[in-house]
Amino acid sequence: MSREIVRVLSSGVLASPSGAGERPLVLVAVSGGADSLALTAAAAHAAPVLDVRIAAVVIDHRLQPDSDAVAERAAAIVRGLGVDASVAAVSVGDAGGPEAAARVARYVALDDAARRTGASAVLLGHTLDDQAETVLLGLARGSGGGSLKGMAEVTGRLVRPFLSIRRDETRAAVDELGLSAWDDPHNADASFARARVRHRVLPVLEAELGPGIAEALARTAEQAREDADAFDEMIEEFIEDICEPAEAGLSVDVGPLAANPAAIRHRIIRLVARGEFGSSLTRAHTLAIAALVTDWRGQGPIDVPGIRVSRNGGRLVFTATGALARECEPLRRKRPWL
């Protein structure tokens, strides 16, 4: 597992630290589960090879009564591996549902920790199984080919070195190390879509279609990401002339959107939503927004999770709403078109 960390971080991900003579700092996001504990142990093993410093940030979502005790216990286990650990308690909002809100709060905390410490990278413990679940959830939402991309191995400072590793491998690793991993009860709670995919949908697919479904979904994600990234790069070059900053968001020139094929128009809409607000639109959301371009009859704004889109003359204006307006700013990547 440490080989995967060395491979990814040796590919130009690490930035030089600002302090003279300092080694780069790599943070590990820890929940206390098997995946993050295996990741921390592997990172500690890889640190001398990479000549980096390793520290951990244990995220306490405060969603359960004993969450603080669970976080402190995880921090103690991490320190037992020789890795410095701190606990970050977050406040989870309600934008986009509980799972999305927890993810936003977690990433905000990790971004804050990285900026505060000057970390070059933040390691996340997502596995091949998580990737397969993400692809299935995206397909269920009807978000088109973009849903097949799954999670990227590298997104800015965020690094997911375990996307080729199965969850049972991380469990076996912590067992071998004698570490006591925490099992988040939410992961078995059928009220959460990801838990249903994990414990019901994927097992049925394996039983009915044969083994290897998770691996096949992960391979599909990798191939789809290659295609989508190339297309997005071309789209970004195109839209640099049609986007302008707007209060709490940005606006897009309607003319070029209307003049181009639906595939390009829809991709621009999805790219703006994802890149500016960290929001993944469903097909229905995308078509509703596109109707403000192609079927404009003076209708009012379209509200999608975390975003309001309105037509203002010849501009399509995207504005953050609700909790997302306060929380998503650290998640916004640099806009190459502005």
Automatic annotation (TrEMBL):
- Keyword tRNA processing present in the record's keywords: the answer is yes
Q: What class of enzyme is it?
A: ligase
Reactions accelerated catalytically: cytidine(34) in tRNA(Ile2) + L-lysine + ATP = lysidine(34) in tRNA(Ile2) + AMP + diphosphate + H(+)
Q: Where is the tRNA(Ile)-lysidine/2-thiocytidine synthase N-terminal domain?
A: 26-200
GO MF annotations for this entry?
ATP binding; tRNA(Ile)-lysidine synthase activity
Keyword set includes Ion transport: no
List, in alphabetical order, the GO biological process terms annotated in this UniProt record.
tRNA modification
E.C. code = 6.3.4.19
Kindly state which keywords UniProt assigns to this record, in alphabetical order.
ATP-binding, Coiled coil, Cytoplasm, Ligase, Nucleotide-binding, tRNA processing
The record's GO CC annotations read: cytoplasm
Q: Which SUPFAM superfamilies does the record cross-reference, listed alphabetically? A: Adenine nucleotide alpha hydrolases-like, MesJ substrate recognition domain-like
Residues annotated as coiled-coil are 214-241
Q: What does this protein do?
A: Ligates lysine onto the cytidine present at position 34 of the AUA codon-specific tRNA(Ile) that contains the anticodon CAU, in an ATP-dependent manner. Cytidine is converted to lysidine, thus changing the amino acid specificity of the tRNA from methionine to isoleucine.
The family annotation for this protein states:
Belongs to the tRNA(Ile)-lysidine synthase family.
The record comments on the domains as follows: The N-terminal region contains the highly conserved SGGXDS motif, predicted to be a P-loop motif involved in ATP binding.
The protein, known as: tRNA(Ile)-lysidine synthase
Q: Native species of this protein?
A: Labedella populi
From the broadest rank down, the organism's phylogenetic lineage runs: Bacteria, Bacillati, Actinomycetota, Actinomycetes, Micrococcales
Recorded name of the encoding gene: tilS
